[in-house]
Amino acid sequence: MRFFSSLLLSLPFAIAQATAWSKTCIVPASGNGTDDSPAIRQAFQECGVNGRVVFSENTTYDVQSVLQLHNLSNVQVDLRGTLVYSTNVRYWIQHGSHYYFQNISIAMEFSGTDIIIDGHDTGVIDGQGQVWYDLALGIGGLFGRPIPFCLRNVTNAVARNFKILQSGKWNFVMVESRNILVDNIYLSSTSDDYQANPGNLGNTDGWDTINSDNITITNSYANTGDDCVSFKPGSTNMYVKNLTCVNTAGIAIGSLGQYEGVFDPVENITVEDVTLIGSRNGAYIKTYMGKRTYYPPQGGGNGTGSVKNVLFKNFHIENITAAPVLIQQCSAWAGWDVPSCSEYPATGFIFDNITWANFTGWMNEAVGTTTVSLVCSPYSECSNIQVDDITVVPATGTGTASRICTNVNGFNASCGVSNSTSVEARMSADGVLT
Ligand SMILES: *[C@@H]1O[C@H](CO)[C@@H](O)[C@H](O)[C@H]1NC(C)=O
Ligand SMILES: *[C@@H]1O[C@H](CO)[C@@H](O)[C@H](O)[C@H]1NC(C)=O
Ligand SMILES: *[C@@H]1O[C@H](CO)[C@@H](O)[C@H](O)[C@H]1NC(C)=O
Ligand SMILES: *[C@@H]1O[C@H](CO)[C@@H](O)[C@H](O)[C@H]1NC(C)=O
Ligand SMILES: *[C@@H]1O[C@H](CO)[C@@H](O)[C@H](O)[C@H]1NC(C)=O
Ligand SMILES: *[C@@H]1O[C@H](CO)[C@@H](O)[C@H](O)[C@H]1NC(C)=O
Ligand SMILES: *[C@@H]1O[C@H](CO)[C@@H](O)[C@H](O)[C@H]1NC(C)=O
Ligand SMILES: *[C@@H]1O[C@H](CO)[C@@H](O)[C@H](O)[C@H]1NC(C)=O
Ligand SMILES: *[C@@H]1O[C@H](CO)[C@@H](O)[C@H](O)[C@H]1NC(C)=O
Ligand SMILES: *[C@@H]1O[C@H](CO)[C@@H](O)[C@H](O)[C@H]1NC(C)=O
Ligand SMILES: *[C@@H]1O[C@H](CO)[C@@H](O)[C@H](O)[C@H]1NC(C)=O
Ligand SMILES: *[C@@H]1O[C@H](CO)[C@@H](O)[C@H](O)[C@H]1NC(C)=O
Description:
Elements: H1 2-10, E1 23-27, H2 37-47, E2 49-55, E3 60-63, E4 67-79, E5 82-85, H3 89-95, E6 97-99, E7 104-106, E8 108-126, H4 130-135, E9 146-147, E10 149-165, E11 172-175, E12 178-183, E13 186-188, E14 207-210, E15 212-223, E16 229-231, E17 235-246, E18 251-256, E19 263-277, E20 283-288, E21 304-320, E22 325-331, E23 347-363, E24 370-375, E25 379-394, E26 402-406, E27 426-427
Parallel strand pairs: 1-2, 2-4, 3-5, 4-8, 5-8, 7-9, 8-10, 10-11, 10-12, 10-13, 11-14, 12-15, 13-15, 14-16, 15-17, 16-18, 17-19, 18-20, 19-21, 20-22, 21-23, 22-24, 23-25, 24-26, 25-27
Antiparallel strand pairs: 6-7
The chain binds 2-acetamido-2-deoxy-beta-D-glucopyranose (12 copies).
Keywords: Carbohydrate metabolism, Cell wall biogenesis/degradation, Disulfide bond, Glycoprotein, Glycosidase, Hydrolase, Polysaccharide degradation, Repeat, Secreted, Signal
Signal peptide: 1-18
Pfam families: Glyco_hydro_28 (PF00295)
């Protein structure tokens, strides 16, 4: 009872829940190296509806086979222990749970309604990803890399107070889900040969949302190597607040337009109070170019899309290596035979009402001084763009921050206001040092 009332007090909203749990299943761990997945499945079978499933503290569960925890309803998962995924690459490549988008492969997925997953600050999911980082060297999109945690076709859920370590691929993925609160999650994926092979942490995004609506992510941390958060196609009504991202690629919308002939909408995204340390990009939008090369998941392109009503504000940035304010429309397969983006510019994208405000910090001096790079395709509509108070300065403390705007309504090439009658076009002084 004590537990139940503290739960109600700490929830910022009420999850439909008529009564306390009618049953509790404590998942046993074999402790002898055999697969604990059958016991986990059994626990969810018995307690996955109006029940509670407990992974005990200080207990390690070996996960050697895929977990499709479906048809859950009104369940609390107390993830107090540690789940450790096996490194049997042959098994995971053959048996992951698949989703069509980029043909992702999921090791553990939850589906259903009214699900609370609480790690109580002790829960850990350990993907043992090093084997995947080594295997995927140069082929970030290598088929079968397991996603350790996925909410799939979930309505009403809370996930909080746990860690995901050494994820084989993207860390925390939400697909076809809605009304989700993610709070106090810690993600860390680092490769033991990252310095020698910096590319090998590709595709280790922190959080990804795909075809999902109304998700809030707060008070969390990620050190994962690729995008900290990536709002992928079909992400609507997303809210992020108080995130620290270390050694990530920043906060991304996209890449959109990977699937030829498919329209990718993204709408109503607010991201605020973010600290980015050692980031590749800041807050950015990326789309594929206008010609498909090879096929998804490795290649693709020549899709269309729209990004509407986006606000990125209060970013503190240290040692960023690209423009913190960025639109780029030239994603392509990272292989040979890719035609030039200028020859085949992205076609059929609309960017409307996108704001970057109050970015402070400094850039890695080795990589130049461009703080704003909004390069829209001539065949995109880029309007109602606002960039206010961007004071990210070159690390040297000297020099002038520069800006590039291409095909952005209301701005000239150096992002000056070109049309004073356009009320939307606003760009305040940024990063100009004496
Ligand atoms: C491992 O432990 C489980 C459950 O405790 C038991 O059923 C199984 O026989 C054990 N296997 C080995 C190889 O010891
Ligand atoms: C788990 O282990 C820690 C460290 O040894 C200990 O402080 C804690 O009391 C243990 N928790 C339980 C529930 O046994
Ligand atoms: C979920 O429940 C439905 C019926 O309620 C059933 O048809 C389906 O097989 C179940 N799915 C799983 C994965 O158990
Ligand atoms: C999604 O979940 C709902 C119930 O929550 C179910 O009726 C539906 O069949 C599921 N869809 C898929 C694609 O599994
Ligand atoms: C959005 O999700 C929250 C839970 O995170 C819920 O309280 C709220 O009602 C949802 N909003 C809508 C419009 O469904
Ligand atoms: C932001 O999140 C961190 C956890 O990453 C937490 O320690 C801190 O208290 C949060 N700050 C605010 C203002 O809530
Ligand atoms: C892009 O895709 C469309 C179909 O959606 C097709 O008609 C067009 O030829 C393609 N463009 C190129 C450059 O391949
Ligand atoms: C975006 O937000 C606006 C204003 O709140 C709302 O009218 C619109 O329906 C939202 N778009 C989507 C796709 O939910
Ligand atoms: C523009 O986007 C912001 C969120 O960033 C939203 O509050 C506002 O309503 C949008 N304006 C229009 C005209 O949709
Ligand atoms: C700008 O963002 C910083 C965090 O990076 C915050 O401390 C500060 O209060 C913000 N300023 C305004 C005017 O909101
Ligand atoms: C900035 O990041 C680069 C790697 O991108 C690193 O070599 C350098 O030491 C960092 N600088 C500081 C002051 O942290
Ligand atoms: C300037 O902006 C106004 C208002 O958005 C628009 O009607 C007008 O066509 C623009 N003029 C030029 C030259 O772009």
